[in-house]
Amino acid sequence: MSSAKGRTTIEVGADGVAIITIINPPVNSLSLDVLNSLKESYDQALRRDDVKAIVITGAQGKFSGGFDISAFGKIQGGNVAAPKPGFVSMEILCDTVAAARKPSVAAIDGLALGGGLEVAMGCHARISTPNAQLGLPELQLGIIPGFGGTQALPRLVGIAKALEMMLTSKPVRGQEAVSLGLVDAIASSNELLNTARRWALDILEGKRPWINSFYKTDKLEPLGEAREILKFARAQTRKRAPNLMHPLVCIDVIEEGIISGPRAGLWKEAEAFQGLLHSDTCKSLVHIFFAQRGTTKVPGVSDLGLKPRRINKVAILGGGLMGSGIATVLILSNYPVILKEVNDKFLQAGIDRVKANLKSRVKKGNMSQEKYEKTFSLLKGALDYESFRDVDMVIEAVIENVSLKQQIFSDLEKFCPPHCILASNTSTIDLNLIGEKTKSQDRIIGAHFFSPAHVMPLLEIVRTQKTSPQVIVDLLDVGKKIKKTPVVVGNCTGFAVNRMFFPYTQAALLLVEHGTDIYQIDRAITKFGMPMGPFRLCDLVGFGVAIATGSQFVLNFPERTFKSMLIPLMQEDKRAGETTRRGFYAYDEKRKANPDPEIKKYVEKAREVSGVTIDPKLTKLSDKDIVEMIFFPVVNEACRVLDEGIAVKAADLDISAVMGMGFPPYRGGIMFWADSLGSKYICSRLEEWSNLYGGFFKPCSYLAQRAAKGAPLSLSEDPVKARL
Questions:
Q1: Radius of gyration of the chain (CA)
Q2: Burial class, 454, CB count within 10 angstroms (exposed 0-12 / middle 13-18 / buried 19+)
Q3: Are 98 and 88 in contact (CB under 8 A)?
Q4: Which member of 192, 244, 514, 682 lies 3.0 to 4.6 Å from 618 by CB, making a disulfide possible if both were Cys?
């Protein structure tokens, strides 16, 4: 995304082959400058008599990562004029490159994604290195391929494979691309250009076929079969992504080209692309794309020029679900790990859990047996601190018990080297409390993984007033190496994610006690796009955890918690969630959740205890009302988290909601979604409910002030405040 202009260069060799090179570091993205320059270089090559054939390639071992995504925001905001519809797909690729009387070959190394692959498909042949990645991931950004990909890809690999590549956004490697017909031959990086040059001259001399991708038909399935494939793809897409339009638009555009020919298909593609570019889904997904890359920018930390130190060895305390999950993540990224437990039985159980995590990867075909053995050998067990004398980082993952954690941190201070990072995976306990009995507060930090740790993509890095910037930089680097998205937050009860979402379950409990149906709430929330509703989530994490975390919030934020006895009453009856096969749902042997009619009696009992009466209005809420009554309190708490400087910026909360809680990315994250509804609307609804149902819904001052001005919630007015 560099501000220097991207460009292309042209060099003509003695053999009469012009090499056109795309230059726009780091991934040679196709900015508007690059596209204009590509057209000029191409026109020049076609005009020149000393040019017989053309090879297109990318600088620095990368063909092109696709259209420059930062241009989307500029086009959506109206700061930059969009290229006229069909400029790239029709004018440059179909009518200039593919239709030229001089053959062109794409020489692909590194990656050809999105627009990059579309440029390559405009050429008459493609040569790739065996490990180059080729794909059309545009749907991840809420749009469709817009440079002719919807028309060229089905004609090269067939409709079924093209649909799979576009709808899943998954790239293929060069080696596989040859067998699919997407690439014509494989060459090593050193031989790539020479092979491509020779291939281009061979086409010219009639030794190789001269193929225009847009008019190739031998790979297209017969019309009847094609219609069946498209029908099936539509049905699958509606089932998998009921809230998304753009995958269906993509299927329509592919179909148009098959029925009415490539030109009609290209026009429909251009039209659809323009429309989708301005859709809420595209704006949301582009926001998430940049927000995810922006989490490592932390004022006062990442701008000090500090280099991350090398972490050679990590120790983990506690081999339970979290500890073993964290150990799995670390050894998968080649960190040697010591797992410490209190006795043999627990230690063996922890090691077995790690083993099972790795074994499931082998079973799914994501890991070879040899890689499994090598990875597993990085894990060592321990029952004491002897082997901690040379560790660079410790992550404590024992149960949420303050005095136990305090004891552990005093011990760690004695046994670990003075540079060692002392991290805790606590999800709710104040870090100052944990490190209270030590003199090492500058190296104490929270490394909060989400369960299951080897699956969930978020890592909350929690700093206190005393945590040194160096330690934060080190942990950001570890986060990146273990392929997590790290978000730096301040220290408070629940940090960012759990604190933001504590009103989520509470709002649901409040509604139920006032007469809303449990299962209707879960259905409305899943329909909105969450992986599961609040009650199904309670069952999954277990009532023990739900009560432990809930009580932390009741203790710390008494004025805005809704105290319900529903979960404790169920727990008294040995219902504790999915593990006991009974919680808010009843579970069969396959762990399938079914509504349980017995729940009614617990709800009635809880109502008696809290003295709440049924409100007829709340027994017949629409799905929209349910979503708002459950998520607006979350927005309200997110505003507090931002206002207190716990989060550095609103976009970090968006990423936290998406990656920590499964908030739908196509809605842009919690704050982005809130701003699409407007602070005024949210505040007025919360005030209305606050008058009817109490302080739980009362808008915080930050939200009220923004609403009074009609200002968005996301913009931070005072950058100094966002420091900590």
A1: 28
A2: buried
A3: no
A4: 514
**Which residue in the list 11, 40, 91, 118 is annotated as catalytic?**
118
Residue 559's alpha-carbon distances to 81, 223, 364, 556, 698, in angstroms, are 51, 65, 49, 9, 10
Does residue 632 contact residue 690 with C-beta atoms inside 8 Å? no
Angle (nearest 5°) at CA 395 between 390 and 398: 125
* 258-272, 466-480, 491-505: range with lowest mean pLDDT: 491-505
* β partners of residue 422: 394, 444
Phi then psi for 465, rounded to 5 degrees?
-60, -25
Half-sphere exposure of 81 (CA within 13 A, CB side): 4
φ/ψ (deg, to 5) at 337: -130, 140
Tell me whether strands 53-58 and 17-23 are parallel, antiparallel or unpaired.
parallel
Which residue spans within 367-457 are E strands per DSSP? 379-382, 393-396, 421-424, 444-449
- The answer to whether residues 198 and 55 touch, using CB atoms and an 8 Å cutoff, is no
SS (H, E, C) 267-299: HHHHHHHHHHHCCHHHHHHHHHHHHHHHCCCCC
Residue 386's CB is within 10 A of a number of other CB atoms, namely 9
Residues 6 or more apart whose Cβ sits within 8 Å of residue 145: 114, 115, 118, 136, 138, 153, 166, 250, 269
Stretch among 80-84, 308-312, 494-498, 671-675 having the lowest mean pLDDT? 80-84
Tens of pLDDT, residue by residue over 103-144, are 999 999 999 999 999 999 999 999 999 999 999 999 999 999
Sign of the dihedral defined by the CA atoms of residues 339, 345, 348, 353, in that order: negative
Q: What would the two tokens of residue 519 be? A: 């299962």
pLDDT digits (tens, 9 = 90+) for 198-233: 999 999 999 999 999 999 999 999 999 999 999 999
Q: How many whole angstroms separate alpha carbon 140 and alpha carbon 247?
A: 10
In angstroms, the CA 290 to CA 278 distance is 17
CA–CA distance, 323 with 454 (Å, rounded to integer)? 10
Report d(CA 704, CA 572) in Å as an integer: 41
Pairwise CA distance, residues 182 & 191, whole Å: 19
DSSP letter for 577, please.
Answer: B
Structure tokens of 203?
A: 């086409």
Peptide bond into 26 cis (omega under 30): yes
Spatial CB neighbours of 469, under 8 Å, sequence gap ≥ 6:
300, 301, 304, 306
Task: List beta partners, residue 577.
Answer: 582
| Contact yes or no for 457/485 (Cβ under 8 A) | yes
Q: Is 687 a catalytic residue?
A: no
**Residue with the two structure tokens 């508007």:** 32
Active-site choice (91, 138, 589, 688): 138
Average pLDDT over residues 243-247: 97
Distance (Å, whole) CA 350 – CA 369? 21
As a whole number of angstroms, the distance between CA 723 and CA 51 comes to 58
What is the residue type of 56? I
Contact 577, 540 (CB under 8 A): yes
How far, in Å, CA of 85 to CA of 147, rounded? 10
Q: Which of 427, 416, 461, 421 is nearest to 441 (CA)?
A: 421
**Which residues have C-beta within 8 Å of that of residue 669, sequence separation ≥ 6?**
284, 287, 288, 291, 651, 653, 654, 655, 657, 658, 663
Measured on CA atoms in the order 482, 488, 493, 499, is the torsion positive or negative?
negative
- Torsion over CA: 567, 568, 574, 578 (sign): positive
User: ω before 452 within 30° of 0 (cis)?
Assistant: yes
598 catalytic per annotation: no
